[in-house]
Each structure stands twice: as structure tokens, then as C-alpha cells.
Write a structure and sequence with these properties.
heterodimer, A: alpha+beta, Rieske Iron-sulfur Protein, 31% helix, B: 499 residues, Cytochrome Bc1 Complex, Chain C, two-stranded antiparallel sheet, 17 helices
Chain lengths: 311, 499
């Protein structure tokens, strides 16, 4: 126990090496040394093994196994060395409180103010010019420079590439006909000018074998021949709404488990999604192809500040 | 020779004058002080493995066609980033090991930072004069999480791409500026003009690590300036530090510890698969997979997104989207309260004194209970990030699992708080609680009587009786829920009937 200070007043060195704290911690240093040496030897062999494994382009497990054991032995030996073969202590060091005295405080404040007055006193105009120039640079940096990172959103959040007459196509560009899907099956579809598009992605479902699917009042013509189409971008956080439950006619988003009712206008019935999936109005043309009547009538995907509107 | 070399430097850097206190710096011996070291050393492992990865990784969203070793993707179109990650895993010698080490190390880095913060929090090490270092440390934790997410994102696989999509939606949800931030960062409306991978890359390998590096320097600089905190006992006082000196004891031990941390990371990288992107496939915006989960340190955020009810705020012509509340507001509140905690606590305790002796958590029941309750809340959110997996595993309806989690994240903290508080106060009341067990040997004396002789806790271990603290040196009054010290001669006893 360091009852008295264990630090030399004059040199700041720790107490003399004759002191009991300077005895090594181990009772039997010879044995510890042997253990540590053996551990180093294990690491030496393992490191060499790693070299061989790398040279031979061995498996990941061989590479990592040899390297890992190498580091393990190397580190363990050092910890043993540091733990048992160094002065056992404990040593003590003085600690001054951080708080300064009133005099020190006043002195530095006074120095700061007095010297500062020489440089800044009666230089109000210079200061104003510095601020003005800095402000101009700030504005320039913010607007043209940061602004050039990307385009402004403008109306890009409000539209997709679907438009009146767009053919309903698969990702490889095949136009779908009303006869292509069987009851209960679905396809991910795009307009032809945006195949694979992240925002145009739409899920096409044949919920019944024929007849018009009216998911909501006002959508009498949107679901011809048992087909409905919804935006595949979840209204919650934008994941693809990828799972269709045939039996219950529900779409599930696998990211945060929002559940949408396919036959009732895509309204969310479970989970965090706050708004229905926008529905794409379809029609079947005279050749039997599925086509869009128009773009979605509302912004697809998650909400944003300017979106406004109601749920 | 070495002495001449030293003299040369000494005459130019005055090491003899200024190096003394570094040589003598005392490190108190306590296992919990090593957690921060794990964080530091996993940062070193991250830098080393990360440099290796940059030699092979191609940070580009450009489409390329794959014709590599991994047959299932032959002929498939994918981003150059994903392809180079595949090549790193299959063709580059030692590449898979480095990739897996890097990913494991990132998880260990954030994990050890969090545990280190818990240690600092529950022992009150953030109190004056260390508030600034707590602030820097919290910032480091946030940066570690951010950089972890960036690194996880850049291979451009299906799971991380979905993560980027969600991040875009979160950015977009910020009132006033959201849509502008999103299009500026991504170079257009999602998925942007292909600049997100290179931008995330430069943030991940240069900008954020540089800030971490600088703040880490400040963190350690303040640690040297303030010197270590320490627990009571073993002669520790407010105005000293007791332990092992930097040279040689700590130096050797801590270097060994660096290699042990590395060893664990290498062994994990060798034997425990992590982020097998070839099983997920490249990111395709209209594909998604089941059980999409982020790395563990983002789990609470994912859980929050899931348990949030389907509410939005509609204003005339404007709206605040659903994801804003769990993914912007909640982390905002969390991190701000965390950073401000030293001042919040000081406002309640009116304790503005310097503290270098650590609290035992049980001695500060209110702080410990608050910490435990908040921690429990985030644990529940973390659990909620696995609702789908749990429903599947337990064969319970997803609805039941989700509704349970909505209830649990309110109820669990409300239970944890009083229980923790009670445990703390009970432990404070129990004589000898938390001390090492010492067995008694029953000895029969010459006269036939029996007596109990206490043994040492461990052979050769001298049990340090906690020294009575001078009441004047430690401020115990006014601390939240802290019983007033009573008794004489500086020994404080907590009255048995205190409630």
C-alpha cells in the first residue's frame, strides 16, 4: 500500500527501484517466463503457418485460423509478460483539480482583452469588411457549389414514367396481354420507356378470372378483366411491396410488414404504412394488350413535406 | 547508440522535460476500463483491413456483366461495386478474410463503444470535469454508427440497397428540406444518377474516419489531461490516481491487448460467416428479400420503424410523413438527451463539484434506474426489428407479435425502472453485498472451543477494505435519490429503514 507518495518530489520519477512495489508481480517469475516464451513460440509457428497458407492460397479458415492463433499467442504472451513480470505496484500519482483560481482566470482574461483591444479597437470598418467578404464566400459555397451536387426535386416526386396508353411490360420488355396471367398470379411490370425503373415499378395482379375489379367508388373502369395494378413502392419507407397472399388478396411489404388490401383500393390494414398504395388505371386495348389509362393520380411512395393532401 | 539517438531527439524535442508525466501516467486496474481499449483497437483493425479492401473495391454504380468464379451470377448485370465485392470474396487472396474481419470489426467497434458508454454512464464518469469528453464520446458513437451504415451500404447488394432505399425515404421525410436533401445527395430522385455509391464511399473511407480520428485524438488528449477516474479502495482518493504506470506495465499489457482484439477479429473472420452478399445478389430496385435486417446497431431504428403506428401529420398543403417520427425525431431526441445528460443530471442533483472517484451503480439508484429503463426501451425496439422472424419462428401471427412489441416498448421500461431502483437500494442496504466471498475455517482450539477464522478471498489476495471516505471530499448530498449520509468520522451508513 502506498501510504506515502510513491513519486520522487524532485525528479518526478517513481519511487526507488528498491521499493517493494518494484518487485515483479509473479511469485515464480521463472515459470511465468517459460509460459510466456512457449506462448510466443506458438504464435511464431502460427505466423509461419499463415505465410505457408497464403502462399498455397489455402481456404479462408486456414488463413484466418493460422493468423488468428498467431495474434492470439502474440497478444497473450505480452499480456502475461505485462501482468506478471513487471513491477507489481500499486503506484500513485497526484492529481490536480481542473478548476483554476480566480487570479489565473482574471489574468488571462485581462491579457486577452488588452491585447485584443490593440488589434481590434477602432477597427470596426475592417471587421465589417471581413464579415461581408466571408458572407459572400459562404453564400457562394452554399448555393452554386452545394447546389451542383444534384438537381432540385421540382416535380420529379409527383410523376412516374407511366402515361396514357403505356403498354404494361415485363422487365425484359415483353408487352402483357390480358390472357397472360392466370387467376391469383402476379407480375412486376413497367412502362416500356422505364424498364426496371425504381419509381415506375408496378405490381400487376389478376385477382379474378374476368369481369371488372372495382376497388373503390370512382375506379369502376380501372380493373379490367380481373386485373388490378398498384405501385410497388411502399407508402411507408419505399421498399418493394413484394409478397402477395393469394388467399386473402393482400400485399405485404417485407421490410416493415405493412399489409395492403388489394381488392379495396390498396388501403393499409396493418403495420406502419399510413396511406393506400396508388392504383394504376388499366384498360385492355382492341388487340388484348394491357395498357395504362394514365399515370398515377397521386405521388407514389413515402411521404414528403410538400406532398400535402390527405390520407 | 540508443542513448545518442535519444539525446539527438531530446535536444530537439525536450522529451526529458515533457515526457516524464507520460512515462508515469497511472492506469487504474479495473476490467471495465478495457472496454474503451477494445474500441480503440478495433478502430485500428478497421483501418488496417479497410486499407486492404480499398485496394480492390471499385466504388462505382456502373453496370457491368459478371463473368467470374461464382457461377450462379455468370452473365448477370450488376454494379461494379457489387462485382468487385464478389471478386474480393472469391478471387483476391485473403480477400474474404479481410472483408469478414472488416465487417466483424465494425460490429465490435460500435459494440464496444456502446458498452464503454454504459460503463461511463452507470459509474458517473461523465461528471465534471469530464462532460466535454462525454460529449465527444457520444459524437464518436454516432459517427461510428453512421460509418458502419455507409460501409454496409457500398457493396450494393440486395439487402444493403434496400437499406439505402429506406435511408432515402427517411431523408425525404424531413420537413421543409427533405426532398431537396434527398435529390442533392442522390443526384436526383431515387435511385439518382449513380453517384450514391461513390459518395457513400468517399464519406466512408475518408471524411467520416478523418473526423473520428480527430475526435479520438481529442478524446484521448482529454483523458491524459484529466487523468483516469478510479473506484474507491486501494488508497484511491479524489486527488490521486492509483494503479500501474504507463511504462512499462501498461505499455506491455495494452499492446498485448491490441493483438488479442485483433486475434478475436481474425478468428471471427475465419470461422463465422458475415454478410454473404453472394447469397443476397445485386441490388435490383424491384427485388426484395424476406427478413431484411440491418446490422445490429441499426436494429433499434428498424424496430422503431416497425412498431410506429400508421400515423402521419397533415397540415394545409404540407405533411410530416410517418417515418419522420421513428427515424428522425426519435434518434434526434435520443442523441441530444444523451449528449446533454451530464448537464441534465447536474441540474437535478445541483452537484457541480469535480469527481474523480467513480460511483458504484447501486449507490445512485435513480441514475441507474433511468439508464436501465432507457436501455430496456431500446432493447425492445431492437427485438422489434425481428418481428417477422419471430412470428415465423414461434408460429404466431405477425399481428400478435407486432402488437405485443407496441405494448412492450411502453410497459418494459415502466417495469424496469422501479425494479432496478429497488434492487439498487436493497443492495446499498445489504452489508457486504458485492464484496468478494471470504470463507471461514472453523478451528477447534486447545481448550476444545470452536472459532471461525476468515480466509483470504483468493490465495495471495489481500482484500482491500474500502477506506472510509472523508465526507468533505465527496459530495453525497443532494444527489438524486441519494440517502443523506449519516454516521460519524466520515463513515456513511444508510439507515436501514430508508425508502
Amino acid at each position: 500500500m502506498p501510504d506515502q507518495h510513491s513519486q520522487d518530489e524532485k525528479t518526478g520519477a517513481l519511487v526507488s527501484t528498491d521499493a517493494p512495489q518494484f518487485q515483479v508481480a509473479a511469485k515464480n517469475p521463472k515459470r511465468i517466463e517459460k509460459v510466456a516464451a512457449l506462448t510466443f513460440f506458438v504464435s511464431l509457428v502460427a505466423f509461419a503457418g499463415f505465410g505457408a497458407a497464403f502462399w498455397q492460397n489455402a481456404s479462408n479458415a486456414m488463413l484466418g485460423g493460422t493468423l488468428g492463433v498467431g495474434f492470439l499467442g502474440f497478444g497473450a504472451a505480452m499480456v502475461i509478460w505485462g501482468r506478471y513480470l513487471t513491477p507489481r505496484g500499486p503506484f500513485e500519482e497526484e492529481r490536480a483539480m481542473m478548476a483554476t483560481t480566480r487570479e489565473q482566470h482574471d489574468e488571462i482574461v485581462a491579457d486577452f482583452v488588452v491585447r485584443g483591444r490593440v488589434a481590434f479597437g477602432r477597427r470596426g470598418f475592417l471587421g465589417a469588411m471581413l464579415a461581408a467578404s466571408g458572407a459572400v464566400f459562404g453564400i457562394v459555397a452554399l448555393f452554386p457549389l452545394v447546389r451542383s451536387l444534384g438537381p432540385l426535386p421540382k416535380k420529379s416526386f409527383y410523376h412516374t414514367k407511366w402515361k396514357r396508353g403505356s403498354y404494361v411490360s415485363t422487365v425484359d420488355g415483353r408487352r402483357l396481354k390480358a390472357s397472360d396471367l392466370t387467376e391469383g398470379s402476379l407480375a412486376t411490370v413497367f412502362p416500356e420507356n422505364d424498364l426496371g425503373g425504381a419509381l415506375s415499378q408496378t405490381v400487376l395482379i389478376r385477382v379474378q378470372n374476368g369481369g371488372s375489379v372495382v376497388t373503390m367508388p370512382g375506379r369502376e373502369t380501372w380493373g379490367p378483366e380481373g386485373y388490378v395494378a398498384y405501385s410497388k413502392v411502399c407508402t411507408h419507407a419505399g421498399c418493394p411491396v413484394g409478397l402477395y397472399e393469394q388467399l386473402t388478396k393482400q400485399l405485404l411489404c417485407p421490410c416493415h410488414q405493412s399489409l395492403f388490401e388489394v381488392t379495396k383500393g390498396g388501403i393499409p390494414i396493418f403495420g406502419p404504412a399510413p396511406r393506400p398504395l396508388p392504383q394504376l388505371p388499366l384498360y385492355v386495348d382492341s388487340s388484348g394488350y394491357l395498357r395504362a389509362q394514365a399515370d398515377y393520380d397521386e405521388p407514389i411512395g413515402p411521404g414528403f413535406w410538400e406532398r400535402g393532401g390527405t390520407a | 547508440m540508443i542513448d545518442r539517438l535519444f539525446t539527438w531527439f531530446d535536444n530537439r524535442l525536450a522529451i526529458s522535460r515533457s515526457g516524464r508525466h507520460l512515462l508515469n501516467k497511472i492506469f487504474p486496474d479495473h476490467w471495465s476500463f478495457m472496454i474503451g481499449e477494445i474500441a480503440l483497437y478495433s478502430f485500428i483493425v478497421l483501418l488496417a483491413t479497410g486499407v486492404f479492401l480499398t485496394l480492390y473495391f471499385v466504388p462505382s454504380g456502373q453496370d457491368v456483366v459478371y463473368h467470374g468464379i461464382y457461377a450462379p451470377f455468370d452473365g448477370q448485370t450488376m454494379s461494379a461495386a457489387f462485382k468487385s465485392t464478389l471478386d474480393l470474396s472469391f478471387s483476391v487472396r485473403g480477400g474474404l478474410l479481410m472483408r469478414q474481419m472488416h465487417h466483424w470489426s465494425a460490429n465490435i467497434f460500435v459494440g464496444s463503444i456502446v458498452v464503454h458508454m454504459l460503463r461511463v454512464f452507470f459509474t458517473g464518469a461523465f461528471r465534471r470535469p469530464r462532460e466535454l469528453n462525454w460529449f465527444i464520446g457520444t459524437t464518436l458513437m454516432i459517427l461510428a454508427i453512421v460509418n458502419g451504415f455507409l460501409g454496409y451500404s457500398i457493396p450494393d447488394d440486395l439487402v444493403s440497397g434496400t437499406g439505402i432505399r429506406i435511408a432515402y425515404s427517411i431523408l425525404e421525410s424531413i420537413p421543409f428540406v427533405g426532398s431537396y436533401l434527398a435529390t442533392l445527395l442522390f443526384g436526383g430522385v431515387f435511385p439518382g444518377n449513380g453517384s450514391i455509391i461513390p459518395r457513400f464511399f468517399i464519406l466512408h473511407v475518408l471524411i467520416v474516419p478523418l473526423v473520428i480520428f480527430g475526435l479520438l485524438g481529442a478524446h484521448l488528449g482529454l483523458l491524459v489531461k484529466h487523468k483516469h477516474t478510479q473506484f474507491k479502495g486501494n488508497g484511491a482518493r479524489e486527488d490521486n490516481v492509483v494503479g500501474a504506470p504507463m511504462w512499462p506495465t501498461f505499455m506491455i499489457k495494452t499492446t498485448g491487448f491490441l493483438f488479442l482484439t485483433t486475434a478475436v477479429t481474425v478468428l471471427l473472420g475465419a470461422f463465422v460467416q458475415i454478410n454473404p452478399i453472394w447469397l443476397y445478389g445485386p441490388y435490383i430496385p424491384f427485388h426484395v428479400s424476406y427478413a431484411v435486417q440491418p446490422d445490429w446497431y441499426m436494429g433499434w431504428l428498424d424496430g422503431a420503424l416497425r412498431v410506429m403506428p400508421s400515423w402521419e401529420l397533415h397540415l394545409p398543403g404540407h405533411m410530416i410523413p410517418n417515418v419522420f417520427f421513428p427515424a428522425v425525431l426519435l434518434p434526434g431526441i435520443t442523441f441530444n438527451v444523451m449528449m446533454a445528460w451530464p448537464w441534465i443530471e447536474a441540474a437535478f442533483t445541483r452537484d457541480d463539484r469535480e469527481h474523480h472517484i467513480l460511483d458504484r451503480p447501486r449507490d445512485r439508484p435513480v441514475r441507474t434506474a433511468v439508464g436501465a429503463a432507457v436501455l430496456a426501451f431500446y432493447f425492445v425496439l431492437f427485438g422489434a426489428s425481428a418481428t417477422d422472424v419471430l412470428a415465423n419462428y414461434l408460429s404466431v401471427s405477425l399481428n400478435v407479435v407486432l402488437l405485443s412489441f407496441r405494448v412492450l416498448c411502453v410497459v418494459v421500461p415502466l417495469i424496469v425502472f422501479p425494479v432496478t431502483y429497488k434492487i439498487c437500494t436493497e443492495m446499498s442496504h445489504t452489508k457486504g453485498a458485492g464484496k468478494r466471498k471470504q470463507y471461514n475455517i472453523i478451528v477447534r482450539g486447545e481448550d476444545g472451543g470452536y472459532s471461525a477464522v476468515p480466509t483470504e478471498a483468493y490465495a495471495g489476495y489481500r482484500h482491500e477494505v474500502l477506506e472510509p471516505i472523508d465526507v468533505d471530499s465527496v459530495d453525497l448530498s443532494g444527489v438524486m435519490g441519494e440517502p443523506e449520509p449519516t454516521g460519524t468520522a466520515g463513515v456513511y451508513q444508510i439507515p436501514r429503514d430508508y425508502r
